[in-house]
Design goal:
By secondary structure, this protein is α+β, with helices and mostly antiparallel strands. It has 11 helices and 10 strands. The strands form 3 sheets. The protein has a 4-stranded mixed β-sheet with strand order 1-2-4-3, covered by helices on one side. Strands 5-6-7 form a 3-stranded antiparallel β-sheet, with no helix packed on it. Helix 7 packs antiparallel against helix 11 and helix 8 runs antiparallel to helix 9. The chain is globular and about 55 Å long.
Length: about 250
Amino acid sequence: RFLNRRHDREQALRAVGLCKENGIQNISIDLIYGLPGQTLEEWQENLDDAIRLKIPHISAYHLIYEEGTALYKLMEAGKVTPIEEDLSVTLFSTLINRLTEAGYLHYEISNFGRPGYFSRHNSSYWTGTKYIGIGPSAHSYNGESRQWNISSLPRYLQGIKAGIPDIEIEELDINTKYNDFIITGLRTMWGIRTADIRERFGEEKQTYLEQQAATYLRQGLLIRENDTLTLSKKGIFISDGIMSDLLWV
């Protein structure tokens, strides 16, 4: 309730049912875990519902208390309390185990899909595909820079009519491109090919990556197969720290 969603559980289930009744089978849902007061039993019920409904794609995200939001203010006021870290780990572990046992592929840290039902949109971000954003606040990527449109609709339309789009541009240097490649690639089950690092960013960064990854490989937190680095099941739980250590600083 404190998330101010416009729907409740029953309405969400009904929405999925209406889609199926009208011939729409390619459905994706978002689940949020780590809610204040959430129990393991409640989370298991949520997952059971998704599996029972045969949802082909599921994204699951841990609740984040973003500074400046209403939820953050409730936390500061002591009206909601974040769950314990041990429970967070248990919820994430349960998510992975239940969905993979049900036939889903854990193809990205927060995303699970049945074969043939991976998100085309989000996969473009993780694989470095170029994309164009149309409309206020929309983002674009052309391989060399990131761009984002002005958030104001009147100013956006004014720029389009004048033939001078109101946009901001961030030119990406080779270090930023390397870091982006690490962060996005290691999040997926396809991982990072060290040969790609050498080809795109040079021998120095390939050597650096292999040196930084060595400790995690010995600890079983990274796996290396056929020149490809991927997170192990244990490594997924500390992925932020691993990726941070592989970045070029």
